[in-house]
C-alpha cells in the first residue's frame, strides 16, 4: 500500500505550547492527526509530527510513502544535505531514520506552507489544546 503524508509542527513562542498535525492520504481514506505535545520548539514539533505520521502509516500497513513538509531544515536533514547538530533533535532524527527503514520505499519533499495547509492548520489548532 502507498500513502502520502503531509506533516507539520507548530510552537507558539518557540519554545512554547506546541502541536503536531498530519494528513495521511491512503488509497481512498484520509486520516487527520492533531495533537498537543507540550511546551517545546518548532523544530522538535516538526520532527514529532513526522514520527507520529510515520508510526500511523506503519499501523496502516503502508509500504511506500511520500512525505511532504514545509520545514526545509527537516527535509534537508532527513535527505542528508544538512547534519543534525542540535542535541534535542538528534534522538528524534535517529527515530525518524529507524522508522523509515521499515518502508520499502520513501521520498521526502519540501513544500511551501500553502501546499501543506491542512497539516499546518491541524498543528496550529493542536497547539491551543493545552492539557490540564
TrEMBL record:
Keywords, in A-Z order: Hydrolase
Domain of life per record: Bacteria
Pfam families attached to this UniProt entry: RVT_3
UniProt entry tagged with the keyword Thylakoid: no
InterPro entries documented for this protein: RNaseH-like_sf (IPR012337), RNaseH_domain (IPR002156), RNaseH_sf (IPR036397)
Catalytic activity, EC: 3.1.26.4
Domain RNase H type-1: 1-128
PROSITE patterns documented for this protein: RNASE_H_1 (PS50879)
Record CDD domains: RNase_HI_like (cd09279)
GO MF terms, alphabetically ordered: nucleic acid binding; RNA-DNA hybrid ribonuclease activity
The protein, known as: Ribonuclease HI family protein
Top-level taxonomy: Bacteria, Pseudomonadati, Nitrospirota, Thermodesulfovibrionia, Thermodesulfovibrionales
